[in-house]
Backbone:
């Protein structure tokens, strides 16, 4: 699983979103990194509702990692109230 996640991350960084998605689908487990990478791929593909679903799963595992992505997704969808909510959550986490 770890090797596939590394390969998926490399594919994402080089703009190969479809390859990254395929590699992620081949993994056995769903650690936080899986949700983060899948959400990032969907974000790049501008599939915001699907990205939000991934980042919501990530939020349950690692809120601090999820908040910036959720802010971006909601901002892109024009839901500025939700975007603001996640921006505030980030600030609150940073102050801890």
Residues:
């Amino acid at each position: 699983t770890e090797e596939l996640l590394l390969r998926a991350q490399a594919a994402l960084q080089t703009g190969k979103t479809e390859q990254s998605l395929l590699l992620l689908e081949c993994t056995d487990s769903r650690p936080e990194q899986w949700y983060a990478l899948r959400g990032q791929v969907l974000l790049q593909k501008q599939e915001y509702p699907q990205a939000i679903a991934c980042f919501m799963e990530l939020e349950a595992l690692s809120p601090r990692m999820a908040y910036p992505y959720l802010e971006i997704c909601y901002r892109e969808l024009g839901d500025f109230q939700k975007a603001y909510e996640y921006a505030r959550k980030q600030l609150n986490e940073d102050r801890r």
In short: The chain is about 80% helix and 0% strand. The chain has a mean pLDDT of 95.
